[in-house]
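Good morning C.,

I know you're traveling, so I'll keep this short. The sequence:
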Amino acid sequence: MATHEAIAAVSRTLRHLLLDRMTTAAEVTLAPPDVTPQGVDRRVNLYLYQVLENGGLKNQDIPGRAHPGSPGRPPLSLDLRFLLSTYSATEDAIDSDLNAQTLLGDAMSVLHEFGVHIDELVMTKNVGSKRIGDPVIDVLLADEFERLKVVLHPMTLDDLSRVWSAMPQANFRRSVVYEATVVQIETVSPRTRPAPVERRAISATVRRAPAILAAFVLPPPNGPIGDIRAAIGATLVIETEGARGVPVFAVLGTLDPVPLPASSTGRYEFVVPDDSRLQPGPLELHIVVEVENDTITGALDRGTTGSATRRLRSNTVLLQLVPNLTVLTVLGPAGARVLRLDGTRLWHRAAKIVEVVLGDRSRRIVKPPSAAPTDPPTPTRIEVPVAGFDLQAPGDYPVAVLVDGVRSIGPELIYEHA
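The tokens, ready to paste straight into the viewer:
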């Protein structure tokens, strides 16, 4: 398995290959072109200037490493591009450039002949820690699934000039680009292995999933039916199909299922609980029924029949949880009056905007400073100065609260402005 050292292992492999197979005696350095290593005469320089992700293997796991039934962890597959340039022992001699050209041809010949089967080569010379007969390829790359290949990468003069211009301290020099593909760095995270199936089970039922036909707030006597605006403590009516004679549960938002009393008509009622997870806004509702399923369990035999409880979920209907404004109290003398509003779900910490509305004028509720004439807002009480509404004419102004755009319900409350 190749680790993060795989990139450096490719560079070492190319260096060993050139030192072992070139006919011209020269050093092979791995350095930026604008850096001259000390104590080196003629040399071939390899500079890794670009690392690209291999698109063909980006999402492909190594064959045999991942179980077909488990999520894969594809390795990081990379293509490496090297800038190869050559240098003679001296730069001002008559044959300096010819010597550099000779080195360039020698290095390109080696990479052309052996670049596609480096993993099959063995050393013919003693080079550094490598001894005659050792594999040319670095030990970190020896057992990789993908074969390392080095090929000449076509580059225009304009593209090469851009590479060299990025190094202002180095003069442009005759050079070529080679691409090494592919090096794979495997993840160190442990893989998951699913347990084998030792006991099979088949469960079936002919019962259809239940359906919610309608859901609304229980209206007052002679009131309209179908209001989906529900406050905390309101009674919801759920009219269903396929939910008779079995245990039925109501699921409101992210709350736990609530068991409903048995009904022979498929009509159920339950009260919206005072749970902090329920805040003004859209409110999803669905029901779940528990039914008995016929089952067959076993290994490789014909199995054993039995029964098991299964939960069937209905469709989801959308309601709206709204603030409930119940009491209006006017505090303070004229000119410095404060409105105190009591109810449920009038404010919460995660609310983006809470407003009090007088007629057609609104004022945003924020936490006041400690010296303010109003108390901090709470879910059941908020206070707001009347002066902030800039009421011009005396009269009766209906009062409401908006929490993230959801308007409150409740008894009609009127502020009499004199």
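Safe travels,
E.
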